[in-house]
Amino acid sequence: MFSLRRTRVNPVEHPGTRAFTVKMTPIWKLDAVRVAGTPFEPGRHHEVVVVGAGLTGLATALLLAREGRDVAVLEAGEVGELASGANTGKLSLLQGSVLSTLRRHHPARLVQAYVEANVDGARWLTDLADELGVPYSRRTAYSYAQTPDGAETVAAELQAARDAGLPVRRVEPELLAQSPFPIVDAVALDQQVAIDPQQLLTAMARAYLDAGGALHTGVRVTHAHIVPHAGVETSAGFAAADQVVLATATPIIDRGLYFAKTRGLRSQCVAFATDAPLPEGLYLSVDGATKSIRSITPADGPAGAAQLIVGGNGFPVGRSPSPRACRDDLITWTREHFPGAEPVAAWSAQDYQSHDLIPFVGAMPRGLGRVRFATGYAKWGLSNAPAAALRIVAEIGKVPRRERPDWMNVISTRFTVPADLARGGVENLRVGWEAASGWLGAQAAPTPVPQPGEGEGVVASRGGHPVGISTVDGVTRAVSAVCPHLGGVLRWDDAERSWDCPLHASRFTAEGRRIEGPALCDLTRLPRVPGEEIEDGEPAASVPHGTAVG
């Protein structure tokens, strides 16, 4: 289960007690090469416009372009801007406790369809990587219990995976004892994949351009139209299309109310330089605070910069008292179990989980068959995203249902069970509580308030309106702290230094620029008011717990 000791490459000296304060950038992007896009032509018509240059968008666009279709991809940032370029690079059909959780409330046929979708998605991705010359390694994946309480979950996952046709096995106790971190029990699946996701995305984007596709980076889509014709409004003008694909992690239009059928989740990741013995496998815990562990080798990532990735400590967006503390806990945990390991990069990523635990893919309700979308991968996008692209392309191409893989038809006709309704009900009750408590908390903290320190933010009330005040890179700014989507009061993320909505997971920079989520516009930037922030030592209104994170 574990490799021999390796010599650390490019060691980084960090005193063990010093806080990790470098910019939040995924290890995959430290030396990433930007893909040059193509000039945007306002008003031009395309057969298909794809919104988003992540894995779903690029896979869909590449498949369509290779069919000879006229395709344009629009991306507000760069290729792999968000989750697709910020995951841990683990492509596995063994996904923690996903299969046993599904099987607990759903028929075996639906679980089987989910596995088959992931098999097809994973096969498509590795075949493409082989074609494009993107290296990857084959690893054994482990779903493991950190404590005796998790052993029952491991047993359930073993049975659910076997029932779905996966060749899993229980790990022998003598092998568990070799682990440098606590493992009480584990189920294993061989021949899974570790890969550099940003290198893959870059290669996909270039292949798409070679196939004749148009790639417009730095162009933000602000609205999608269905009638009288399909198309999108962007920051650079209008783009018309026969079909629109929203590959935006969560749909940017509210038809179908998918923002209320999913929840946004964030996870922390830290890459370490270390010469400690490293695990050969891909590890994900099924109990307690999640821990996701993999090594980096020259075959699957920038091994010269870091040799180990530890992720986890996830939380619903906007609902953690301190994301930075979650990240720092990962560093502490890693230093305990891998002595000498020092962080060289840290980041976080966001994905969405549907209340019935199966991704939503297909035609947008009341979209006249002109708009399609995908969401709800629950952090398993490396296999679910290609599967979603395969289904979307089959629908756009009007492939008869009888000629499609069976999993596409099973998943498209799934039904909601009481457990799904209960899960969704609990989440939406929490959304209501967050909405009310956010406004009450803001009103209880009228200005003036202490000026936030570097990297800190606070929500206060200015004349009854929640205002977000933060200090980043020495600049103190004020923005409206009300999410433009449905009016939730934002919370400060002290790791990413962003304003996050605890209702439906929209996120904004300290300057108020939209990052992601169902919100479509930026926050209103507000002028700073003299006397609104006071220096340390001056009297100020009491700021209740939860309004300041930093």
Automatic annotation (TrEMBL):
A Pfam family it matches: DAO
Residue stretches making up the Rieske domain: 444-527
Alphabetical keyword list: 2Fe-2S, Iron, Iron-sulfur, Metal-binding
Record InterPro entries: FAD-dep_OxRdtase (IPR006076), FAD/NAD-bd_sf (IPR036188), Rieske_2Fe-2S (IPR017941), Rieske_2Fe-2S_sf (IPR036922)
Region (Disordered): 530-550
UniProt keyword Iron-sulfur, yes or no: yes
Name this polypeptide is given: FAD-dependent oxidoreductase
Lineage: Bacteria, Bacillati, Actinomycetota, Actinomycetes, Micrococcales
